[in-house]
Amino acid sequence: MFTPRPHNPVLAALLTLLAAALLAGTTLLAKALGTGALGQPMHPLQISHGRFLFALMAIGLVSVIVRPRWTRPDLATHVGRSCLGWGGVTLMFAAAAFIPLSDATAISFLNPVFGMILAVPLLGERVGPVRWGAAGIALVGAAILTRPGGGVVEAGALLALGAAVCLGAELIFIKRLSGREGPWQILLINNAVGLVIASLAAVWVWIAPSAAQWAALLGIGLLMALAQTCFVNAMARGDASFVAPFFYTALVFAALYDGLVFGVRPDAVSVIGAAVILCGAGLLAWREGRRRQTPAPVPPA
After folding, report:
1. Which sequence ranges are marked TM in the entry (predicted)?
2. CA–CA separation, 270 and 268 (whole Å)
3. Which of 72, 82, 179, 251 would give a disulfide with 193, using CB separation of 3.0 to 4.6 Å?
4. Phi and psi of 171, rounded to 5°?
């Protein structure tokens, strides 16, 4: 399933669009759980536990069927990556309960920006003026979405910003693992380690989920596993610089879901902030594409 495939741009685009739609669905379900739409409001720590639990079950089941080739894993790097991924997912789920899904999704697109910034001291990468300019533009968009002085809305945006920082730092660990271990192995180990971390955290806030909440948690895990699978397969069939722009449609799906389910419509500030972030992220993707090292956005761990 995850071996290199011949280039197929059409299929790569379709798989990326599907991954974006599935990923937006996970934040929708997280919002339903966190806001009490399905019963007693659930803590983000417990929501992320369900995400890792059911994603691991799904990925583990498929791994038994496809039997991917295993190599010796770099456990220290996996643990670091999983800690950051768990933190990013948890903060993202927390943000979804406070701000429109479109805002939270737009801010999450900063993860390659923070990944680029952190790569300077951690990986010794050199960053030119175009890439710094792209990062600056994207950060201005995030500043717009924080709505300074907006109270609860501002706090939710800061949670999403924290998620983007964690996911950006996670990219550093992903770079270290890529090329050394197979994508399927990385996904399986990441979700296993993430489940251990999430279980230790969730025990302090645990409530007995209702049947509807269990179904939503199951949905989050399955949708996340499918999103990761679609994205990895898309990357195997198309260049990262080609795939990345299609992943930004997650913003459209998030706004659509939020409007249909919760009746939330993006306001002018949301549209302007998201547009500025997409301009910066798009410029960065274009520049990195020319360098053939595009830090494409990745589904949360």
Report:
1. 46-66, 78-99, 105-123, 130-149, 155-174, 186-207, 213-235, 242-262, 268-286
2. 5
3. 82
4. -60, -30
